[in-house]
């Protein structure tokens, strides 16, 4: 008799539910993980609103850690019961995109993001890990689940934002929006040598976290045009790089406007909410000739990168846990998801624990 | 009594003239060059139409070679009478932008482009060379002026387009438009390891030159949507990089559409004709997450780079002279400029010779 | 009853033989290829001389192409009977080294090189392909086996040498030794934008091939110190990059000596013959402060890179077949191996064909 | 009547003196700075011992800050009396080496290092600044001289060491020797995203500073082979990068030995003490094939980089002043130099103040 588990699914656009599903079996290159902790991501809120076409009944979630439940025949070097984290993006590592280093684009655009879009997500009691050899990351003993779970998406995405800003030490960077991914971009920019970080954010609790994670200056866009504020703060010269962590055309355009010639715009915002094309005004774009560069990307996965995030936590260089504003048992997942949708009570990231 | 020379100037928007001006004297870091050959650039046609605000009476031109007439006190290692080329962009090499490697953005956006915009251009019998130590390039004896003059803008800009495409050997690149800069981008991509070059162009004589310079395939946009044609040619996958050498929103957008995830869009087109912002449609931009990158830039100057272009000519690896479709004496500069405006008679680049 | 095949093995140091072995069966991630053509590599000559510790009876060879004989259960997108090439290096693509991009160091130093050192090589009628999803490369119909087989090691290694030279267009590079890998480095440097290639070689037939593949100048080291010759040829300044394709301390040191400050030394020579450490003389090394860089590497594998090599052949940009000086049937493999050892009759690469 | 100043000079090998010299006059591109604070560098100790051939009577010193005394005619944007710092390396920014980005190699190997070797150094009451437009760095008001003076050599060189280690966030780096430059390399690696820093040092006071500047682990080479200790600490795998900040063949070789395949060795040690060539043992060098890279370099100058160092100090991210173990008035420069030679009393850097 097949054993079952509970999973948090999208029933149809606008509706979620907890349902029973069979505990999955691993293919030769896969693993099954029993979930111990997870985070809810705003991108699932978008998914439930209908931003992405998803099959009804598909399990949501892509930020989970747990213990190895079973391993496929071709997976070596891991043991059942071992504590592991799995990135939101789980590339095959063997297609031409992966071989070129674009693992998040596994098999084609955004193809490394398999949970929810191509298979069941992992807001469930058990979940499948594709290409487990590369995608299972052992969690060091000293690192608790509530720390490790930030490696699955928030830190990897935010740090990618800082990497694509290609900072030289001491340079100035503006980070637009200090939601969890923007906060991680701030932390990443601070870690990778920024000399000055200007964080754009209006909510006091997020401003405070931004400061804690390394921001030097806060720009509150409710107090005036953030572009003007940043230009004033930089004596009219602008910043070396700007990170877009909001996902709106105005913010994207502002990133272009605040960067000096030779500057980099690094996009990590998800632009699926607003169907209008992003705009590149010709003055800010230097008529196409001002040596600016725009980079895009999607949460990079893989246990090598995850291991480096853990090393930074282990050595005390980063601590993402102040972003966990709320904790719920999986039994209360629906309530947690509602709060993530309404963004009430100053919620940043709700941690979900599994019995 | 001051000696005078003839110079080709903009009198006001829409009007040019040949006028007498004093032969300039060099400041300590400058040199004066007596012009022997020049090319007319389409960007001067734009300037005369009013694309850039330029002081009335300003000398036009930025693609000239000649011989050293006199040297400032701080300039060493050159001799009067020596044959030299000077890039369209003449950076100071000492400001913070230059030190960061963005020499075309000397002092700020597009600031390395000084001829016509900040000082007299060099479509004149004599011209000033700022920061001459870095901006005077000796022309090898074996290289005639009609070859060397292509280093001033066309080859440097086109090759920058190929450099910003960051090709791995054997990759596929599309080059949109085969005007002189686009043709040089084709030549550059071929030189830097492209495995397949798809040139977008409708005029037969430019298609022929594109083939001669390394294009493998021609896409005629009058025969159907070039995006569809390129997607078909690449089995629906798209190209690794696209070079925009036309300067229109549609072409820019097409570049984004034809690149696969992880692809690069390298802009060398001048987008000063059409005031509308460029657009990034969200599907082609992967919602900001498909690892695409967009690079912009402006003709890089400096005698080190110019010397490398000459080396490629000297060793027979490149020959730009098939682009010279017409030759005029400086006496006939007005007629040449008219033809460059009307683009009549299949004109690509008119060479101007000085007595 | 297990079917058998013939394989060319090392019996013990100094002795080879053709033996019968069972035709292998594929694991879930593997494929079996029936060999149609192969090249003999000098590194196998070194192996037989005892340079690497290899288990007696191990099949030699790592430059083979063929057709898919059978596929493991986890391998998709290939079909039995399909023509394929396999690189000498067959990484897993999933370990931390592979994820960091150092696929030739799969699992640890030189670990991507599995044939002969970790498993049977492929100078046999059938051979195993590990991680087949990434390591099987379809051969385009228009490309015959005698072309495709050069992608397995020679072109990939030689081109890596040129890549590590990190050439800007128009720069000068010296390539030390024009054996098959050095010749491919010359071809690669030419393809990737070199402005001048100085090939160091004394044998006339190799000098001729070097010229054919893009060398501008030949330095014959039997006619005087090659360092002095190269310094003279470059007006005492030296070259931008030097590629070591010989594998001796003197050549390595010469590479360091001929590079100017800021220069790159790219090593592709196999330094297993001479046990003495390589030396970095302090003057040529600028007391450790002259911005020189030294890069090492091992033939990169993977079907993405192999596909780009095929594209360069398909478009007519490269043709490696002039290096095939001799052809033998597999029946005559022992004679071919003897000639590769003695280097008699001007042999460069012997092609082995399979019935 | 020419005014005079005092300068600290080398009289002959092994002998120094304070002498009177005329206060210099600036050329058109130069500035004269009146010194307010300086540091003594161990490389001057080497120079006095005879490591570099230096003209008798040459002023020593290359780590000085002060106020602008006078400006050449071509220098703009600075004012007399302005507080400024000047890097030890003062490139022209216009030669081919500078244009290629190798400004420390201005005009040829090590040519950017002009003080003492090509002109009087700046351990004097006044000094000349070549190419002042690029080499004068305004000191922010909030930054005192004893902080600013660390930008002249220590921080720029140490941070270059970390830059050449090309760290991905979270990687492990070993820094060999924690003299002032090694300490700055530790600080730089910490600032640029290292996940674990292993500092090799035996002196307790330097170990303590290393910890303060970001080292996670200390290896005391008097307690056992540092290579073995580091391999043990990394579970036999080795480090991603090693920085050589000592300048001895054994340390250089150890750097190669402790790096894993794909690792980087970044040299900042000055190897002028020991004339023997450095050695690359073939096992640690992977027979030339293990994807290791070796980078060398010399203190990068320029006010753009200096400004970024100041920004890091201004924002509180770095504080180099704990390295100042001793302070002397310029009157006592001879005593200070003696102590720097004997390394007595735990001296790290002595600050010299000018009346």
UniProtKB/TrEMBL annotation, chains A, B, C, D:
The keyword Zinc applies. InterPro entries: ADH-like_C, ADH-like_N, ADH_Zn_CS, ER, GroES-like_sf, NAD(P)-bd_dom_sf. SMART domains: PKS_ER. One of its GO terms (molecular function) is zinc ion binding. SUPFAM superfamilies: GroES-like, NAD(P)-binding Rossmann-fold domains. Its cofactor is Zn(2+). The keyword Calcium does not apply. Pfam families: ADH_N (PF08240), ADH_zinc_N (PF00107). This is Alcohol dehydrogenase zinc-binding domain protein. It comes from Pseudonocardia dioxanivorans (strain ATCC 55486 / DSM 44775 / JCM 13855 / CB1190).
């Amino acid at each position: 008799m097949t054993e079952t588990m509970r999973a948090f699914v999208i029933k149809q656009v606008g509706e979620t539910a907890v349902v029973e599903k069979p505990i999955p079996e691993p293919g030769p290159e896969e693993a099954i993980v029993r979930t111990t902790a997870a985070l809810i991501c705003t991108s699932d809120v978008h998914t439930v609103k209908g931003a992405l076409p998803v099959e009804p009944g598909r399990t949501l979630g892509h930020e989970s850690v747990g213990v190895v439940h079973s391993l496929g025949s071709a997976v070596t070097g891991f043991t059942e019961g071992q504590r592991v984290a799995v990135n939101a993006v789980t590339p095959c590592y063997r297609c031409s995109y992966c071989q070129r280093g674009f693992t998040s684009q596994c098999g084609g655009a955004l193809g490394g993001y398999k949970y929810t879009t191509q298979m069941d997500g992992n807001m469930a009691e058990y979940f499948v890990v594709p290409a487990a050899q590369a995608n299972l990351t052992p969690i060091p003993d000293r690192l608790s689940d509530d720390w490790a779970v930030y490696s699955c998406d928030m830190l990897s995405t935010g740090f990618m934002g800082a990497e694509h800003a290609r900072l030289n030490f001491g340079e100035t960077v503006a980070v637009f929006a200090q939601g969890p991914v923007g906060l991680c971009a701030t932390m990443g920019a601070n870690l990778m040598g920024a000399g000055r970080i200007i964080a754009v954010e209006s909510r006091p609790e997020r401003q405070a976290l931004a400061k804690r994670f390394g921001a030097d200056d806060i720009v509150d866009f409710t107090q005036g045009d953030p572009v003007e504020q940043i230009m004033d703060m930089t004596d009219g010269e602008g910043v070396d790089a700007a990170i877009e962590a909001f996902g709106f055309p105005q913010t994207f355009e502002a990133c272009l406007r605040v960067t000096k010639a030779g500057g980099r715009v690094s996009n990590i915002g998800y632009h699926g909410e607003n169907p209008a094309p992003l705009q590149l005004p010709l003055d800010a774009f230097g008529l196409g000739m001002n040596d600016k560069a725009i980079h895009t990307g999607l949460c990079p996965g893989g246990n090598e990168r995850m291991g480096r995030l853990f090393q930074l936590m282990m050595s005390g260089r980063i601590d993402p846990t102040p972003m966990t504003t709320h904790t719920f048992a999986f039994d209360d997942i629906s309530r947690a998801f509602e709060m993530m949708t309404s963004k009430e009570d100053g919620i940043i990231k709700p941690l979900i624990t599994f019995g």
